[in-house]
Amino acid sequence: MADTTGPSTAANCLENLKSYVKTQKGLILASEIIISLIIIICYVSSLYGGYSAIAICEMVFAIVFFVIFMMELDKQIQVIHWVWSDLLRAGIGFLLYLITSLICIIGGSGDGARIAGGVFGLIASILFAYDAYTIYLNLRSNIQHTAAPTNDRV
């Protein structure tokens, strides 16, 4: 029989969620998820819904990395370098949001939802750029603090 005296798995997951959202990385990822959802709503309600694919992909990637970092699976699955993968995700998200937002703002005359999606996309590109910058600083500090192996034998 299962032991029912300890805390349930759902309660443990909820506590992990609450504590991870209070960290800087958790807040950034949660903000990326929320703003991507807002962009999806704007693009879907516009006349040209094709731009919503980028927002959907970026939201799914942000959710995946949020869950991986929240549950500390990055420490268990060491086949992938999660910090570099997160930097790649944030950098690509920045570029894609910047390009599509500029296209939507410039060519979206008469379509208010498309322009709103473009404006939120510019905000998202700033958020993704900030995320990439913080990841870069984290990588840079880890590289500087790691000592290189030396051979003291002569």
From TrEMBL:
Membrane topology label: Multi-pass membrane protein
Domain MARVEL intervals: 20-140
Location(s) in or outside the cell: Membrane
InterPro entries: Marvel, MARVEL-CKLF_proteins
Ranges annotated as spanning the membrane: 27-46, 52-71, 92-109, 115-136
Keywords: Membrane, Transmembrane, Transmembrane helix
Annotated GO CC locations: membrane
Function as written in the Swiss-Prot or TrEMBL entry: May play a role in cell differentiation in the intestinal epithelium.
PANTHER family in alphabetical order: MARVEL-CONTAINING POTENTIAL LIPID RAFT-ASSOCIATED PROTEIN, PROTEOLIPID PROTEIN 2
Listed name of the protein: Proteolipid protein 2
Organism in which the protein naturally occurs: Iconisemion striatum
